[in-house]
Every structure is written in C-alpha cells, then in structure tokens.
Amino acid sequence: MIFDAVEVCGQVALTYFEADLATLVTARSLMPVTGWKIITWQDAEKAIELGSAVPLLGITLGPNASTQAKSQGKRESLSAVLFDAYLEGEDATVVAQIMALVPEAVMMIADRLAAGVGGGVFGAAVTELSTQVDVTGAYEERGDQPLYWQRARTVVPVWDQDTGL
Predict the structure, then answer these.
(1) What is the domain-level CATH number for residue 83?
(2) pLDDT averaged over the chain?
(3) Eight-class DSSP state of 71
(4) 158 in Cβ contact with 117 (< 8 Å)
(5) Tens digits of per-residue pLDDT, 57-85?
(6) How confident is the model at residue 114 (pLDDT cuts 50, 70, 90)?
(7) Is 104 exposed, middle or buried (0-12, 13-18, 19+ CB in 10 A)?
(8) Number of compact structural domains in the chain
(9) Whole-prediction pTM value?
(10) Structural domain of 45
(11) Residues 6 or more apart from 120 whose CB is under 8 A from it?
C-alpha cells in the first residue's frame, strides 16, 4: 500500500539512480557526481539536519496519498512519492546543470516502475503531466570557500495494489 510505494521506490533508486544520473551527466560532457546517499522516509532537509552526507536523495511520502477499502481482496492506492535531491559544490553552473538532470534520472526510475520493476507497484507517472518538479538553490560562504547548493524535488504519482493485510 502507501508504505510499499516508498519502499519500492527506494529499492529501485538504490539500484539505478546514481548510474542513470551518471549516464545523463556524461552524455552532456559533464563530470558525474558519485557517492549519492539514498535515504528513505526522509526528505533532504531532514536528512541534512540529521547529519547525512551529501550528495543525497531522500525518498518519502509526498504531500498526499489516496486509497480505498479492499474490493475483491485487493486495495489500490495512489501515493505522491517525493524524490528530494540535494547537491552542493563550488561551481554554481555545474551544480545547476547536474541538478537539472536529477528529475530526468528520477523519471527513469518511474519508467522502470511503470514497466513492472518493483513488486506491487503497477504504475508511476503514467498520466499526462502528472509529475511535479521544483528546483531551488542558494549561495553561501563557508569560511573562505564559496558554496552553491540546489535541491531538486520531484513528486511522482505511484500506483500500487495491496492484496495482503
């Protein structure tokens, strides 16, 4: 159900996100960022507050989910799953370029979910213009080093079906 949507998205992201992003970044002649920390049940802001390493991708339940009572032994749910990426670096242009590609890598996860990767999930971002993307960023100085950071928040609708509890 709703729990499973986040868990399955986390498993698929753990398996594919960094490689998918590296493929997209390399195709644009940029240097891939490695060492992405994938965290479920926390958005990027909370993960950073708790001391997580960066770069990171937090995956949690987005602003809402819809479900119903079981019918014929199954319950279908539609969950808004938030993929919240955070990256920082000394070059604002590079950070911005890479973070513009993060939603594309997230959509590659959605493509896999829609194709049946991940038990119980039978669709992700399958309706027209159903995925929301918000990229924000800022500049600050840490000591004598400039630091640019950006967050890319991608909310993906995930349909799943529960036949268990």
Answers:
(1) 3.30.70
(2) 87
(3) B
(4) no
(5) 999 998 888 877 777 777 778 889 999 99
(6) confident
(7) middle
(8) 1
(9) 0.88
(10) 2-67+76-162
(11) 4, 8, 160, 161, 162
